[in-house]
């Protein structure tokens, strides 16, 4: 699988401090790799829970920049499922709703407040009601037990910040008003509230993402959109929003992989020893374009942290398999040998065979497998940065 196709979640953070806050909740961070020629975005890549995520910041604030960024990102990362918009917003204080600085609003609906129809005599109505956010993420947000979510977010903030001083944020699920103007005028804010009485906060990007990019907006309250607006609460609000986004991703199950393309071979050489176990194995195959038409190269890695006695999908040591589709004259070695990793105290009886349900009915004539520890094969030098103490997919 191409590296870009591992990423299923795009996180758009309009400000650099918001991106830094979101990055702070990564479980793993990966190096950048080649993007599309037409994509000028800069991505921070990592993993949160079971999801591979890409964080990006638009070049400017507003609906258009956010929409352009997301369009490019969805073209670069072919397997994206959802977009999260994570950052700060101006809260709309209203008696009885309890919106406070540092709280978080998860958008159940986005209203574009500057998309309106004039009615005459200075009156207008809002018509900018956009598509609802993704049902999967919305269901997690609105059905999560309130106490459980609050405890998770509070503990996460305490763990990441190393302090107990951060107040426990309240998580609200409601309408977000979005437009192209930075609101710092109480009278203008109140006009928006007059037309959209359910609005809990105001920001500048959601309306550019919601209709096309399966977007859920998560906003921390950093001010109240009036003349007293300042940036004192921005970092705290950004961290609170990032913590809520992390909670939602932790509750979201991993996505099923799409059927493999014709470039992806399904190979499962199996080996038995005295400690063989039937653990579930998850294939993650990276296909490379061969330099010679006679063979294709694949890398495959273990996804489970448990020791495995099988090679192939569950092998602990990364291996390189070369599948020969042409004649025997194309073999790079006159007599390819198998160099397979031995676990301590085990006896290995190597009998490779192929996955019987090959969806493309390809029958390679020979498979040669080399382990990372074999010095006889020069291809293993490319795998020298493998960290055996931290199994799982790594960017290289």
Topology pattern, helix = H, strand = E: EHEEEHEEEHHEHEEHEEEEEE
Major sheet: arrangement of strands: 5-9-8-6-10
Characterize the biggest β-sheet. 5 strands, mixed, barrel
Helix fraction bin? 10-25%
- Uncertain spans: 258-396
Distinct helical segment count = 6
Q: Characterize the overall form.
A: globular
CATH topology of the largest domain: Rossmann fold
What is the terminal separation in angstroms? 13 Å
How many strand segments? 16
Query: Structural class, judged by helices and strands?
Result: alpha/beta
Question: In percent, how much strand structure appears in the residues?
Answer: 25-35%
Per CATH, the architecture of the largest domain is 3-Layer(aba) Sandwich
What is the CATH C level class of the largest domain, in words? Alpha Beta
Radius of gyration: 26 Å
> How is the quaternary structure best described?
single chain
Mean pLDDT: 68
Question: What does this entry show, briefly?
Answer:
The protein has 396 residues and is of the alpha/beta class.
